Amino acid sequence: MGTTAASRHAETDGATASALRGRYALVGLGETAYTRGSGLSTRAMAGQAIRNAVSDAGLRLSDIDGMLSHSMADSTVSQFVAADLGIRLNFHLDSIGGGASVEALVGVAIGVIEAGMCETVAVYRSMNGYSGVRIGAPGKTRIMSGAELHTRGQGLSSPAQSFAPAFMRHMHVYGTTPQQVAMVKVIHSEHAARNPKALYPKQVTVDQVLESRIIAEPIHLLECCVETDSATCIIVTSRERAMDCRHVPVFVQSVVGRVSKPRSDIYFLSGDITTTAGRLAADRLWRNAGIGPEHVDVTAAYDAFTFTSLLLLEDYGFCSKGEGGAYVSDGTMRLGGQRPNNTGGGLLCEGYSNGMNLVIENVRQLRHDADDGCPVGASGRRMHTYDHGPAGMCRQVRDARVAANLGWGTIATGSAMVLARD
User: Fold this and answer.
1) Which residue, 222, 233, 347, 372, could crosslink 30 as a Cys pair with Cβ 3.0–4.6 Å?
2) Could you tell me if 88 and 82 are in contact, meaning their C-beta atoms sit under 8 angstroms apart?
3) Locate the Thiolase C-terminal domain: which residues (predicted)?
């Protein structure tokens, strides 16, 4: 039986992606503090984060010749930031987007380097998400257009309001309980308690989560991500250049970017509202990586809300649809569990950077260099104890080799990435 044109294209695309597996690496990480009131412009913070990432990689600013950023009309474009740093760019791109952006931009960086357009790319996100533009906060009266005619006009003006119907539907169909979902916050708070950078390092209980006020039923206040001011940056380059950088390289095995459901503007008009775009992206992600979710040691499932992590873990195949409540509450995601999730505390506790900090945390895990409370040895590296008990301060996952980042733009749009060390 002959093959169709579509199947031939799929085979070719898969072979191309497999050929790129492990050929590009994340070599530098940069952050500013996660604060509530930075006192700095997004332009100044972006420069700080990029400098920190370049230093972390053991590179010079002059080694950077590509720059990518994303924003929600709340940041500074790369041309200005590059000029401040004395960097001349061979390629730059500033995109509009939120939580589904970082993995997608890593894919763009790989593409432009592969095309010979530049050599080493800085990907950054700078935002005053608390003291400046607050996502979903009430704003000035303005004319509504596009999808807002069907959302803001009906009272769905914030992410919590927009996603709440899908969360309620999941509870109705699958019997998912508030107590199960609250465990996402509980576990991430346990991880944040071991993170000196976390804005909210205090551990919480299920009762405390469920006793906090309702924001948009069934979402409680403590189930919402924190609002922070910060800038974050990662450096992407080829395998060959990565081998000369300061740290153990972390290689990109697979990436999918901004995969969308048929209706990405009004998600509840297209199919099961409890199913995210991750269900459509999963086959491509794992095929291109050459592995499955069972091979992953640590995950970073976007936790804008407790429920977003649950839905993503289901749709990317870490558990079956409807079993997310058990997965997030049975200890699997804890440090010391089978597959820890958001080991730095995530967006619920560490800080909110549209997911950049989740990628940074997974890279540190694969370097075996999580910045926790463990002592630093004479070599300058942390001597991890792997004590993940109640009194332990270690958040390093023992022998972590493969990590997955599961991004979230909306229920209808998502990105993801698989990372590994050699």
Assistant:
1) 233
2) yes
3) 271-372
Count of beta carbons in the 10 Å neighbourhood of residue 290 = 14
CB proximity list for 285: less than 8 A, separation 6 or greater: 254, 255, 256, 316, 416, 417, 418
24 in catalytic set = no
pLDDT tens-digit map of 40-57: 999 999 999 999 999 999
In the chain, where are the structural domains located?
22-133+228-242
DSSP 8-state class, residue 397: P
Sign of CA dihedral 264, 270, 276, 281: negative
Neighbours of 255 (CB within 10 A): 28
pTM of the model: 0.93
Rounded Cα distance, 274 and 324, in Å:
11
Residue 302 annotated to the active site: yes
| Backbone dihedral angles phi then psi of residue 57, each to the nearest 5 degrees | -80, -15
Do residues 29 and 364 lie in contact, with contact meaning Cβ atoms separated by under 8 Å?
yes
CA dist., res. 340 & res. 342, Å (int) = 7
User: b or e along 186-200 (b: 16 or more beta carbons within 10 Å of the residue's beta carbon)?
Assistant: bbbbbbbbbbebbbb
Q: Which of 24, 130, 316, 352 is catalytic?
A: 352
pLDDT in tens, 150-198: 666 666 778 999 999 999 999 999 999 999 999 999 999 999 999 999 9
From the list 34, 302, 316, 327, the catalytic residue is 302
Q: Which residues pair with 25 in a beta bridge?
A: 237, 251
Cα–Cα dist 290/313, whole Å: 19
Nearest to 199 by CA among 30, 50, 345: 345
CATH 3.40.47.10 fits 22-133+228-242, yes or no: yes
Asked if 124 contacts 46 with a C-beta cutoff of 8 angstroms, the reply is yes
